[in-house]
């Protein structure tokens, strides 16, 4: 489909898709600092308020897998247009029905289903068009825009929420519709290919994810039992379908599975941490929403741009292992410093966010390059779609799990002697949980990729 030399149109498309990727993840995090305000306005708990983000991330995660699979049959251009129109529709729903919590929930749900087309399709274009020894820089550029959007989202959200109202955040995504004429002209036409979509497999997987996420926030075992049954049904389906939603062969490739699993653990942990910071700043330091965005989270955007670009170069020149070690080291130092002195000064959190977002930019570049290198060309749609799906799902679950943990009294106890403010006990202990998750993710990655002769594995024809 897109294999071969890279044309000027493809480069333009990637540049503009990177711009759209920025807006897609911006909308993922732009509501972060406004969640406490939403909870107060509707009289709901933090766990319920976090579903404003979780609903978006869930459909965002599912959509990346669906669009990735559909691109193998219908092509990129048509799916991108459909996704952007759906994204705009969700934004309009949010503007109209923002006074009702179910309306806000529905709007975020629709937004996620639409904008998920962007990261899914841009990853596929890079995996198919760009030579493996140049993919690091391409993924680094895209990762920079994605991480920049994630980082600056809370800044913009905080300013708008503080000086206007959080409902105005639904107006920003409508601006992306202005780019539709450009994409219609720039993206090349594509012929339809024979194939069909495994609708039953997609439904079983989506429902399994939804019920499992409900379990992680409500801790009702019935949801866990239902999710297990749905996942069993999904496994049965993809083994028997003529054209399964996800090719079973992908699950037998160790490097692919480990890359996806590592990305899910690390990105899910980081998303949970970012979602926790606004609550921490309000509870421990009584900081206003606007200052949380501008003073605490915004400086991390600078590190994202720098480290995203450097990370791509580092992957191409020094390899995945070296770059991953640097990224994980930065995140771990950041988390540990917050755990030890969570109640000393809010500006320590600012410095920690620089390390967190910078390290996250490196990690994302490595994960994308590692997974792309483990795929055959014909698997790029499903494989990269599954990577996006798993990582965004993990981010949604990370946010949801943190929302649930923030209500647990057994975490709000004194554990580290360096933390003396009772209001900070909960958040210091949460950081220890985050560090544990980061260590687990790094062990998973290096235990497999550290044994390979190179930083990424090129799939063999025998696999």
List the helices and strands and how they pair.
Elements lengths: L7 H22 L5 H8 L3 H4 L1 H24 L1 H21 L4 H15 L1 H13 L5 H29 L16 H7 L12 H20 L2 H20 L13 H32 L3 H9 L1 H20 L1 H21 L5 H28 L6 H26 L16 H28 L14
Helix pairs in contact: 1-7, 1-8, 4-5, 4-6, 4-7, 4-17, 5-6, 7-8, 7-17, 8-13, 8-14, 8-16, 10-11, 10-17, 12-16, 12-17, 12-18, 14-15, 14-16, 15-16, 15-18
**What percent strand?**
under 5%
Count of helical regions: 18
Kindly name the structural category. Answer: mainly alpha
Specify the overall morphology. Answer: globular
Radius of gyration: 21 Å
| Low-confidence blocks of residues | 1-8, 455-463
In total, how many beta strands? 0
Q: Give the % helix.
A: over 70%
Average residue pLDDT: 78
Order of helices and strands: HHHHHHHHHHHHHHHHHH
Model description:
There is one protein chain. By secondary structure, the protein is mostly helical. The protein has 18 helices and no strands. Helix 1 (8-29) packs antiparallel against helix 7, helix 4 (51-74) crosses helix 7 and helix 12 (254-285) runs antiparallel to helix 18. The longest helix has 32 residues, at 254-285. Residues 1-8 and 455-463 have low confidence and may be disordered.
In short:
The protein is an all-alpha fold and 463 residues long. The protein has helices spanning 8-29, 35-42, 46-49, 51-74, 76-96, 101-115, 117-129, 135-163, 180-186, 199-218, 221-240, 254-285, 289-297, 299-318, 320-340, 346-373, 380-405, 422-449.
């Amino acid at each position: 489909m897109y294999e071969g030399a890279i044309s000027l149109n493809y480069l333009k498309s990637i540049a503009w898709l990177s711009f759209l990727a920025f807006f897609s993840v911006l909308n993922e995090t732009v509501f972060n600092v406004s969640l406490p305000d939403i909870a107060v306005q509707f009289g709901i708990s933090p766990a319920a308020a976090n579903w404003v983000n979780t609903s978006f991330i869930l459909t965002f995660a599912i959509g990346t897998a669906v669009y990735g699979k559909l691109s193998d049959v219908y092509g990129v251009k048509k799916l991108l247009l459909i996704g952007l129109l759906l994204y705009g529709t969700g934004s309009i729903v949010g503007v109209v029905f923002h006074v009702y919590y179910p309306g806000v929930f529905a709007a975020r749900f629709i937004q996620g289903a639409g904008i998920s087309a962007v990261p899914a399709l841009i990853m596929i274009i890079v995996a198919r068009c760009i030579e493996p020894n140049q993919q690091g820089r391409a993924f680094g550029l895209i990762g920079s825009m994605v991480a920049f959007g994630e980082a600056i989202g809370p800044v913009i959200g905080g300013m708008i929420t503080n000086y206007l109202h959080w409902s105005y955040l639904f107006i920003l995504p409508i601006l992306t519709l202005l780019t539709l004429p450009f994409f219609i002209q720039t993206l090349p036409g594509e012929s339809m290919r024979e194939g069909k979509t495994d609708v039953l497999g997609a439904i079983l997987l989506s429902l399994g994810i939804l019920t499992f996420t409900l379990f992680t926030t409500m801790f009702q075992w019935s949801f866990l039992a239902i999710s297990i049954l749905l996942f069993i049904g999904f496994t049965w389906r993809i083994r028997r379908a003529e054209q399964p939603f996800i090719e079973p062969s992908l699950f037998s490739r160790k490097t692919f599975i480990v890359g996806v699993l590592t990305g899910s653990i690390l990105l899910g942990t980081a998303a949970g941490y970012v979602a926790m910071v606004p609550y921490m700043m309000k509870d421990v330091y009584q900081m206003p929403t606007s200052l949380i965005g501008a003073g605490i989270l915004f400086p991390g955007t600078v590190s994202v741009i720098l480290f995203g670009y450097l990370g791509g170069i580092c992957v191409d020149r020094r390899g995945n292992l070296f770059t991953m070690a640097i990224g994980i080291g930065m995140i771990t130092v950041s988390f540990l410093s917050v755990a030890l002195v969570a109640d000393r000064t809010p500006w320590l959190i600012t410095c920690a966010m620089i390390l967190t977002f910078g390290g996250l930019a490196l990690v994302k570049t490595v994960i994308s390059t590692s997974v792309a290198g483990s795929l055959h060309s014909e698997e790029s749609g499903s494989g990269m779609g599954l990577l996006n799906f798993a990582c965004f799902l993990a981010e949604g679950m990370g946010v949801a799990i943190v929302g649930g943990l923030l209500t647990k009294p057994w975490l709000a106890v004194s554990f580290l002697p360096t933390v003396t403010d009772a209001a900070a006990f909960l958040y210091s202990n949460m950081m220890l949980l985050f560090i544990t998750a980061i260590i687990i993710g790094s062990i998973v990655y290096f235990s497999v990729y550290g044994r390979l002769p190179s930083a990424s594995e090129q799939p063999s024809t025998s696999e």
